């Protein structure tokens, strides 16, 4: 634990009352949405300016104190968890949209801007911020950049990385760097901006971000389709992608749907029970597009790939269909799930999922397994639910034993052990299944350049040495 005199010094660097050490704050700010590690930070500090962030970093280097950057704390890999006496740096008071350029379609955000705040800002200006996920109401832009957040529209718009025009960062050395200066074209050597995106706060703090916006989509329309088996989902994806520009293509299993139905606040898509469901979305910008979608649906039914389906006819129906997918994560959190967030190239998904499913069925015969994810971009979420009568620690330990087999398959398929949630602490011991020893050595060398004293989020991405 950090010495009280050192915390007193920290208090002089920020506004009065912006260092918190009470038990409730330590508990709230020391964790994210993972339930693996008990939070144990020494203090929480809430800077208001870039200069204050630099002063905090200088203080941390002087006293060799570990800092954990904290956004909306919606992460699912313990990337923002402070379990070892670190000081949490939270951006609740750096949460303003600072500037908007309608011509360049860019918005300058402080790191604490909530994702939905940016989405709404874009909407108010007739534009669109397309990175979206269920936690957009609380996740923050700084955290999204730290994990290169993905979500439900990646098939069309890509990850957060695609929407970052420029960054201001404070490195682990305390230097302020202005990266890429919001340019579209910039061929002046290494693009350091990209290094900070997805770095999980291990290189420094994002203290300002210029985000790009897009044109607003026209008449977004969703379809939910029930399929007779998992293998039918891929030809459905192929058929729709051949005829329409999809903005999303998600899937979930009957078990995932049953959990959401159990809430009682979402209407079922249709009466037919199906083992798997696909949710796709497109811009029905004119009648021809909607007709094309219906014709593709009929083709899929004729082929036996689809058993039943529904297409949204209003904004309310669109939202209700999305709830079937977006509510899954929050709903199953009640069962303390062990979460996997794996990916392969899209064409490999059927064979990959079949192998993983067989391993999981063999090793987790007594656990409920819930599949869902962003199948259109190759990202599958495998969630193992904790039996009610089992302790959390025993459950997580038994799941971790199976990881070896799951991740060996991931490695064989050239996949990723973390598609969008990040490595954090929950996946750090498995990094070598996705990255070579040479790559890991390069990553560590890069960290040493920006953070020579190792004060920035230690123990995240890489296991402590
Ligand atoms: C999702 O796709 O719903 C999110 O990544 C959260 C989760 O995987 O539970
Ligand atoms: Zn996801």
Automatic annotation (TrEMBL):
Its cofactor is FAD. It catalyses: (R)-2-hydroxyglutarate + A = 2-oxoglutarate + AH2. Signal peptide: none annotated. Gene3D superfamilies: 3.30.465.10, 3.30.70.2190, 3.30.70.2740, Uridine Diphospho-n-acetylenolpyruvylglucosamine Reductase, domain 2, Vanillyl-alcohol Oxidase, Chain A, domain 4. Its EC number is 1.1.99.39. GO terms for molecular function: (R)-2-hydroxyglutarate dehydrogenase activity; FAD binding; metal ion binding. SUPFAM superfamilies: FAD-binding/transporter-associated domain-like, FAD-linked oxidases, C-terminal domain. One of its GO terms (biological process) is respiratory electron transport chain. It comes from the Bacteria. Keywords: FAD, Flavoprotein, Metal-binding, Oxidoreductase, Zinc. It is an enzyme of class 1 (oxidoreductase). InterPro entries: FAD-bd_oxidored_4_C (IPR004113), FAD-bd_PCMH (IPR016166), FAD-bd_PCMH-like_sf (IPR036318), FAD-bd_PCMH_sub1 (IPR016167), FAD-bd_PCMH_sub2 (IPR016169), FAD-linked_Oxase-like_C (IPR016164), FAD-oxidored/transferase_4 (IPR051264), Oxid_FAD_bind_N (IPR006094). Pfam families: FAD-oxidase_C (PF02913), FAD_binding_4 (PF01565). Residues 37-216 form the FAD-binding PCMH-type domain. Belongs to the FAD-binding oxidoreductase/transferase type 4 family. PANTHER family: D-2-HYDROXYGLUTARATE DEHYDROGENASE, MITOCHONDRIAL. Homodimer. This is D-2-hydroxyglutarate dehydrogenase. It comes from Pseudomonas reidholzensis. The lineage of its organism: Bacteria, Pseudomonadati, Pseudomonadota, Gammaproteobacteria, Pseudomonadales.
